[in-house]
Automatic annotation (TrEMBL):
Belongs to the 3-hydroxyacyl-CoA dehydrogenase family. GO terms for biological process: fatty acid metabolic process. Residues 353-417 form the 3-hydroxybutyryl-CoA dehydrogenase reduced Rossmann-fold domain. The lineage of its organism: Bacteria, Bacillati, Actinomycetota, Actinomycetes, Kitasatosporales. Residues 194-290, 418-499 form the 3-hydroxyacyl-CoA dehydrogenase C-terminal domain. Pathway: Lipid metabolism; butanoate metabolism. NCBIfam families: PRK08268.1. Residues 14-191 form the 3-hydroxyacyl-CoA dehydrogenase NAD binding domain. One of its GO terms (molecular function) is NAD+ binding. Keywords: Oxidoreductase. InterPro entries: 3-OHacyl-CoA_DH_NAD-bd (IPR006176), 3HC_DH_C (IPR006108), 3HCDH_RFF (IPR041040), 6-PGluconate_DH-like_C_sf (IPR008927), NAD(P)-bd_dom_sf (IPR036291). This is 3-hydroxyacyl-CoA dehydrogenase.
């Protein structure tokens, strides 16, 4: 490790400016790492309140025996509010967590520049502003970095270390090393809209909202499919009710606007209407779901038991769904194989194929049913199916019976292109490939960020490799054909990756 790679010394003074939700959390993290910490807030009395709030939180940790009382006392002995910015003159690192307004942040850092020493590192916790723009007014913009913590900062491991256009490499290295010594998982990223997580996560929300707008299914069903088949910890409807529809929409809009209205980042009309109607989620008692007292959570659509087929013919390679073959054999279904195709044939003539961005109705066979992508068909507890509108009722019933025989609950959704999980994951993979190719962050940091920042079950780049870049590309091409606005056009990065996989590059 070179001198440049070393973080702020443990004895170094950390100042936190803006002592609301994030400021308090960041202060707690710095305290836990052993630093003396000073708090400043523009609202009189707010910094002292923050000291009390942090003391309460540490007290709860002591009560739960997760922190020795002596460590709590020592930490509180290192923490003090200050009444004036000038009292931060000794700081080695200032982390700003004031309101999300460019002018306010620029003004604060301009004032700080004439208070702190030349060696002091400056950091902004902005989630949506340009670090380059915040630093743009400074005499020495090279020492300003973005340190994007996630809420709640003491619990969330990820910190995006953002290098603005003028940020010195050494300053970014120091910030990175510092948060690493704080026990966090730092990732480096360029100063681009949404950084890593808030950029790449957009389709997780957007595709579900879009599927809802297309009336593929209700929010409870779409959430259940993304959780139980996609492997995501929470569905996008429940998650945005928790985050706040206004907060989630503001992130979507700011990234979309900062990217000059790129159609891939288009916000959702259904979410706009929720926000306009004041249905902001749990905090207002109603969002996608009713959160008022006594209101039950709507159940996802789950098909009634159906008779399973006794045998299945596997035509060709099922690609990402090939794992189903072994599961069928284990379930006692007689499986025979035919070399050509990429589908399952049931005894009644039903053809079952993996969602690929086309609809079942586009197939030349009436009895056509699509099944959705699963993270892992063995562990998935639910699978979504969609039948061609022309399919006989019996086709859908035998397809339902097949998946039920594998132990899965089945949700029947409308026959929309890419259904639910397939379109969501294809878009996440494409966004991640595109971000990596544009130098937003390294491939390793992109997957780390999505695993630790939003708890995805798999890093999107690793997921794309498991699926095969050509499958992702072809699914998006089909979606693009169905909806030629540019939203689904595969990125150049994905096209190159698929060509390389196919040995064409
Ligand atoms: N809340 C989140 O989930 C989250 C996550 C990551 C990043 N952020 C970012 O962190 C920052 C703070 O967010 P928050 O949710 O903690 O806000 P908050 O409203 O809880 O706290 C902001 C605090 O800053 C103080 N303040 C405002 N202007 C000030 C000034 N000029 N000087 C000193 N203090 C000032 C306010 O009095 C308030 O106490 C924002 O930039 C936000 O985008 C928030």
């Amino acid at each position: 490790m070179t001198a440049i790679d070393r973080g702020i010394d443990r004895a170094g003074l950390v100042a936190v400016v803006g002592t609301g939700t994030m400021g308090q959390g960041i202060a707690q993290v710095a305290l836990a790492a052993g630093h003396p910490v000073r708090l400043y807030d523009a609202a009189p009395g707010r910094a002292s309140q923050a000291v009390d709030a942090i003391a309460d939180r540490l007290g709860r940790l002591v009560a739960k025996e997760r922190l020795p009382a002596a460590d709590r006392d020592a930490a509180l002995g290192r923490l003090a509010p200050v009444a004036d910015l000038a009292d931060l003159a000794e700081a080695d690192l200032v982390v700003e967590a004031i309101l999300e307004e460019l002018g306010a942040k620029q003004q604060l850092f301009t004032a700080l520049e004439s208070v702190v020493s030349d060696g002091c590192l400056l950091a902004t916790n902005t989630s949506s502003l340009s670090v380059t723009a915040v630093a743009g007014v400074l005499r020495r913009p090279g020492r300003l970095v973005g340190l994007h913590f996630f809420n709640p900062a003491p619990l969330m491991p990820l910190v995006e270390v953002v290098r603005g256009a003028a940020t010195d490499e050494a300053a970014a290295d120091r910030a990175h090393a510092t948060v690493a010594t704080w026990g966090k998982t730092p990732v480096r990223c360029a100063d681009t809209p949404g950084f890593i997580v808030n950029r790449i996560a957009r389709p997780f929300y957007a595709e579900a909202f879009r599927a809802y707008e297309e009336r593929a299914a209700d929010p409870a069903t779409l959430d259940a499919v993304l959780r139980e088949s996609g492997g995501f910890r929470m569905g996008p409807f429940a998650l945005t009710d928790l985050i706040g529809q206004d907060v989630n929409e503001a992130v979507t809009r700011s990234v979309w606007e900062a990217l000059f209205h790129d159609p891939k980042f288009t916000p959702s009309l259904a979410q706009r209407q929720l926000v306009a109607s004041g249905r902001l989620g749990r905090k207002t008692g109603h969002g996608w779901f009713d959160h008022s007292e006594g209101a039950g959570r709507p159940a996802p659509h789950t098909a009634e038991p159906c008779e399973p087929p006794g045998k299945v013919v596997v035509h060709g390679d099922l690609g990402p769904a090939q794992g189903l073959v072994g599961l069928m054999e284990e379930a006692g279904i007689a499986v025979t194989r035919e070399p050509v195709g990429a589908h399952l044939a049931l005894p009644d003539g039903t053809r079952l194929s993996l969602a690929d961005g086309t609809t079942a109705a586009e197939d030349p066979f009436a009895a056509s049913v699509r099944f959705d992508l699963a993270l892992d068909y063995r562990t998935a507890t639910r699978v979504a199916l969609a039948a061609s509108p022309a399919a006989p009722e019996e086709s859908l019933r035998s397809a339902i019976g097949l998946f039920q025989a594998l132990g899965k609950a089945v949700s029947v959704v409308q026959d929309v292109p890419g259904m639910v999980v397939a379109r969501t994951v294809a878009m996440l993979v494409d966004f991640a490939e595109d971000a990596a190719a544009r130098g937003v962050a390294s491939p390793e940091d992109i997957d780390t960020a999505m695993l630790t920042g939003v708890n995805y079950p798999r890093g999107p780049l690793a997921w794309g490799r498991a699926l095969g870049a050509h499958w992702v590309r072809d699914t998006l091409r089909n979606l693009h054909h169905a909806c030629p606005t540019g939203r689904y056009a595969p990125s150049q990065a994905l096209i190159r990756r698929a060509a390389a996989d196919e040995g064409l590059l």
